[in-house]
Design a protein that fits this description.
Elements: E1 7-12, H1 19-31, E2 37-41, H2 42-49, H3 65-87, E3 92-96, H4 102-111, E4 117-123, H5 127-137, H6 148-165, E5 174-179, E6 184-189, H7 197-205, E7 209-216, H8 221-225, H9 236-248, E8 256-259, H10 263-275, E9 281-284, H11 301-307, H12 309-317, H13 330-348, E10 354-358, H14 360-370, E11 387-393, E12 398-404
Parallel strand pairs: 1-3, 1-4, 2-3, 4-5, 7-10, 8-9, 8-10
Antiparallel strand pairs: 5-6, 7-11, 11-12
Helix pairs in contact: 1-7, 2-3, 9-10, 11-12, 13-14
This protein binds 6-O-phosphono-beta-D-fructofuranose.
Length: 405
């Protein structure tokens, strides 16, 4: 079969919108099929070409003519390298840069005239995610000389400069606009003969979870008493299990661990964070807090059955839709848990391995996002405390395994 024609892909978007993650996703996945994909990142060229530090916002100020000239040269080098790669047998070149001005996109097409260009515009309007992404960016070595607040302010100023010159890519022929938080295509204008597009489109909408380890916290004080709600600590046995989990994952890089904000998941993560200092970033998300039990706070199931028999029966009749008075239900917590998953996946980008340490009800909801389960069965998914779920969900592989630690 003849190889399809070649394709250039140009990312478009402000800094910290998820462009590089999308670019890496396209490259890694298409390469599995022996398609030769080259990634041309302006930031990499900048760090290679300019020995001085270019992380300060002034370097991105459009009014700074000298820096603007340098940035044009960086872009030109990138175009030339992409062109050479394609001439040398490459199939797809991905130009990973902001490409927010029309002038820059015109230059790109002039410099890469031999193959069509698909513009992939990345959007993420979520202020919380943006703030978290900025924090992640400013942990890069090039910001090491600045204090945290200063680095963040500098990056936000940089985004502002790009926002100022942003011209939506209305003029281009082939465009897909992507909501990178939700893997959702917002707009699409693509000619029928654009090579590889069917595969790429599906990829843009697919999960990219290489390895997610979904863990429930180990035994807590309340678990022993069969009580719901509260914010109890792990028991001695639970702490032992937390260490066992940490030992089990020795040798597995875990760049990100996500927990809830409750003591039992924080304590569960402790041994792992202690033994992986500087190698693991921890985020505690309220989205992963256990189901709010409202009026039943601190009660045991037996007490609820005895003292609130109607409530107990109502829950047994329709557990998924039941909402604790003053609290939550499975149905009402779905939105926040799914948002937590999106946040975790967005922040961890193309990490090989990530871990979420959650709770019984929360983990059921997380699982329901990956497994086809009827809603009424979700509140009964078995969530053990000495095993974890290993989940892979990519365009080409779905794996779901319960493993002991
Ligand atoms: O019992 C532990 C626990 O995590 C409680 O905090 C929570 O209310 C409960 O599990 C959720 O499970 P179920 O919906 O089966 O009561």
């Amino acid at each position: 079969m003849p190889r399809p024609r070649k394709l250039n892909i140009a990312m478009v978007g402000l800094p910290a919108m998820g462009k590089s993650t999308v670019a890496a996703k396209i490259k890694e996945n298409l390469e599995k099929d022996d398609i030769k994909v080259g990634l041309f990142n302006n930031g990499d060229v900048r760090r290679r070409m300019i020995p001085g530090n270019t992380s300060h916002a002034g370097f991105y100020d459009p009014a700074n003519a000298e820096a603007a000239g340098l940035r044009e040269r960086i872009a030109a080098v990138n175009f030339a390298e992409a062109k050479a790669f394609m001439a040398g047998g490459g199939d797809i070149a991905i130009l990973d840069a902001t490409n927010v001005s029309r002038k820059r996109r015109d230059t790109l097409r002039e410099q890469l005239p031999n193959h069509p260009v698909l513009f992939v515009e990345c959007i993420n309007d979520d202020p919380e995610l943006l703030a978290l992404s900025v924090a992640r960016k400013t942990r890069l070595p090039e910001f090491a000389h600045l204090g945290e607040a200063e680095a963040k302010a500098s990056f936000v100023t940089r985004i502002g400069y790009y926002r100022h010159i942003y011209e939506p890519p209305v003029e281009v022929r082939d465009l897909v606009r992507l909501d990178t938080l939700n893997n959702r295509i917002l707009a699409e204008r693509v000619s029928a003969e654009l090579p590889y597009y069917g595969r790429i489109r599906d990829l843009l909408m697919s999960d990219w979870i290489k390895n997610l380890f979904l863990v429930r916290h180990a035994q807590s004080e309340y678990n022993v008493k069969d009580r719901v709600g509260g914010d109890s600590s792990l028991t001695d046995k639970g702490r032992g299990q937390a260490w066992a989990l940490s030992r089990h994952f020795i040798g597995t890089p875990l760049p990100y661990i996500f927990t809830s904000t409750l003591a039992r998941t924080l304590e569960m993560a402790e041994p792992m964070l202690e033994t992986r200092k500087g190698q693991t970033i921890h985020h505690a998300f309220p989205e992963f807090d256990e189901i709010g039990v409202g009026a039943c706070e601190g009660m045991s199931y037996a007490e609820i059955e005895r003292d609130m028999p109607e409530l107990f029966a109502a829950r047994a009749r329709n557990k998924y839709n039941f909402v604790y008075p003053g609290g939550e239900g499975y149905a009402t917590m779905a939105g926040r848990v799914y948002r937590g998953i999106k946040k975790a996946l967005y922040l961890s980008g193309n990490s090989e391995h990530i871990m979420i340490i959650g709770h019984q009800a929360v983990n059921r909801m997380i699982l329901s996002d990956f497994l086809f389960r009827r809603a009424e069965d979700v509140p009964y998914i078995f969530i053990p405390q000495d095993k974890y779920f290993h989940i892979v969900s990519t365009q080409t592989k779905k794996l779901f395994e319960l493993r002991k630690y």
